[in-house]
Amino acid sequence: MHHFTTGDLVTDQNLGRLDHLADLAQLAPGPEQMHNWLLAVIGSKEMLPPAVAQQIKGNFYLGDLHYKWSEEFRTREWTKLIEGLRRDIDQLALQDLTVTATDRPCSRGETIVELCDELDAEGHGTLRFNTLVRRLRSIAVYDTVSDARTLERLAKRKKVDPYEITRTIHHLKLVARRMFYVKD
Length: 184
Known about the structure:
The chain is an all-alpha fold.
């Protein structure tokens, strides 16, 4: 396993995720597992700066072909994809990569973290706080939805424990930082 330090946290996390996905231990029987693996690889690759993403050469856009393959053929093709990804990630790890956030697409996780920072600075009970909570609720995905709903509920209360809001915002930021593979 490699540790990437490109100067951009989102790129580092996506390269780390690809490094993890380039492990033959990812192989599992069934087309659904391969499909999920392909989606994970594609999601992380799309969040990389183009100059970095171009160095990952595998074709991960298979459509539904992997559902039509026999188990033996699927395993053989999946192994080739994993081994190719491993080679590409190992080559990237040898380079001195330096990137900035402007080199790649913005992630949904980053947007949520930025909104949380604004909420943290704003304070409960203001019109702006309520507007930020509504915006956050409208873009929340996956594991952030529950916290966004909690903030929405708390924003409607007249009296609320400030610790409860702070805890929810900080938990939401923690979860959002694991979502740097979702394109905004």
